[in-house]
Description:
There is one protein chain. This protein has helices at residues 2-12, 36-41, 50-59; strands at residues 16-18, 22-25, 43-46. The chain is an alpha+beta fold. It has one domain (2-59). A three-stranded mixed beta sheet has the order 1-2-3. β1 and β2 (22-25) form a beta hairpin. α1 crosses α3 (50-59). The longest helix has 11 residues, at 2-12. The protein is globular and about 30 Å long.
Amino acid sequence: MMNIISDLIRRLEAVLILPGGTVIVPRSADRDHLPENFKNEWSVVVASAGEEITKAIQAS
């Protein structure tokens, strides 16, 4: 399931925002496109695969 979500995030050039203030981006370069408050106040995690997204969710 998370591999499907990671594929959608990458194809749509989107981010996944988790409750509690974690933002998941598919590529490191995508951090540059986030609003300043996301970069400064929220945890930003690069996760390009489903397993990485699962780990980020568990850690948040």
